[in-house]
Structure formats: structure tokens, C-alpha cells
Backbone:
């Protein structure tokens, strides 16, 4: 958990550093107050690390809430159907930059506006899911970080097999409503067959279902969860 939290903080800090260009070189002007939109697929209570990393990164860049920047938060509370409405609200507020994470939220933001700069603080395979044209030349109004590409999915299984050679049954936690999870599943299945690993999929659409998913994993006696 500590490693995951550290990765989350680092991804947000790196993504926030990308805000410097969208916000402009006159960012330090005392007369200009920027408005940043934050579109969250989960809830504020479920994502405190990411929110604090955002604030800390902004402070490092000279942006202080209540002084020269206002952050508008919108949370879908795990209900992806709410994302289009929330994204539209942020665009209507004329935010200077829209920050979000996760393929469903990023995709919704991209569909909502072609003019507001969108910074993604971590997504699935951004190229395969159509968020950007390519990693070298993303194009459009979306930039940021993608932390899952096909090569990585296969590599995770390879490392797992090297660490625990007797591994045969591996659990895969995925959200069937997330296009990135659907895309990565195909790559993972191909890698699993080559390594003689049997995948067991457990679907989770919201945070409240995670505990039940892990209970089901225990009952199914899987060897590992990458």
C-alpha cells in the first residue's frame, strides 16, 4: 500500500508540473486568479492522497488556493454515468485547465471539450483507448501520464512467474466499464497463455465491491494478484 501511495503522489506531482504551460508564463501575476477543474471518478474521501499531491505540486509551482488559483472539485462517487454532467459543469465554469485521472474520466473530459487543456494524472493505455494519437505526439488537448501499456501488462506476469515459479492461478481485478481494463485484459490473457498461467477475473465497478472481490479471490484459492 505504501508503494501504491507513493506512485500516486509521484504521478500527480509529475502531471501537475505539466500545468505550467497550459496556465501560461504569466502565472505569477498577482492580478490573475486561475481556475482549475478537478474531475474525480471516485470520491474526495477515497482519494485524499491524490488531492493533497495536487495541492502540494501547485504550491511548488507558486499557485496557492485563495490567492492566485481556485480549484473546482467534482466527484462522481464511483458512478461513471455522472461524469458527463460533472465535466460539463467544469467546462461551463470556464476552467483554465482540467485535471483528471483514470480512462473513463479522461475520455469523458475529452468528449466534453476540445479547447480546455486536459492533464491526465495517470490512465490506462492512452494510445489504445484513443485518448492520444501517440506517446511522442499526443495531439489534441490531452497530455499527462499513462501508466499501463501492453508491454507492461505482460512484463508484470513475467516478473511474477520469475519470483514465484509455481504460480499457476492468478487473479485479475478489473472494471468492465473501464475501456482501459478491457483493452489490457486482452494483452494479459495473451501473456498468461505463453506463461502457462490461468487467469481468474474479478469484476469491480465501485469501491464498495472491492472487499467482496478479495473475499471471492480467497475462496477461489488463487496464487497471486499482480
Residues:
Amino acid at each position: 500500500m505504501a508503494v501504491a501511495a507513493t506512485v500516486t503522489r509521484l504521478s500527480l506531482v509529475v502531471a501537475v508540473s505539466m500545468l505550467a504551460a497550459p496556465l501560461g508564463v504569466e502565472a505569477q501575476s498577482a492580478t490573475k486568479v486561475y481556475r482549475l477543474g478537478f474531475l474525480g471518478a471516485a470520491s474526495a474521501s477515497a482519494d485524499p492522497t491524490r488531492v493533497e499531491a495536487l495541492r502540494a505540486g501547485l504550491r511548488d509551482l507558486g499557485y496557492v488556493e485563495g490567492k492566485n488559483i481556485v480549484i473546482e472539485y467534482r466527484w462522481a462517487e464511483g458512478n461513471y454515468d455522472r461524469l458527463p454532467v460533472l465535466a460539463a459543469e467544469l467546462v461551463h465554469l470556464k476552467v483554465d485547465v482540467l485535471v483528471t485521472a483514470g480512462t473513463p474520466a479522461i475520455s469523458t473530459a475529452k468528449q466534453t471539450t476540445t479547447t480546455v487543456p486536459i492533464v491526465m494524472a495517470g490512465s490506462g493505455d492512452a494510445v489504445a483507448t484513443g485518448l492520444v494519437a501517440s506517446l511522442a505526439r499526443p495531439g489534441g488537448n490531452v497530455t499527462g501520464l499513462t501508466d499501463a501499456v501492453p508491454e507492461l501488462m505482460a512484463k508484470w506476469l513475467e516478473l511474477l512467474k520469475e519470483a514465484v515459479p509455481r504460480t499457476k492461478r492468478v487473479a485479475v481485478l478489473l472494471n468492465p466499464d473501464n475501456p482501459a481494463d478491457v483493452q489490457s485484459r486482452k494483452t494479459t490473457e495473451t501473456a498468461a497463455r505463453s506463461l502457462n498461467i490461468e487467469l481468474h477475473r474479478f469484476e469491480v465497478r465501485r469501491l464498495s465491491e472491492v472487499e467482496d472481490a478479495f473475499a471471492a479471490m480467497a475462496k477461489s484459492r488463487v496464487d497471486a494478484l499482480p
The chain has eight helices and seven strands. Residues 2-17 form the longest helix (16 residues). The two ends are 13 Å apart (CA to CA). Residues 1-11 have pLDDT under 50 and may be disordered.
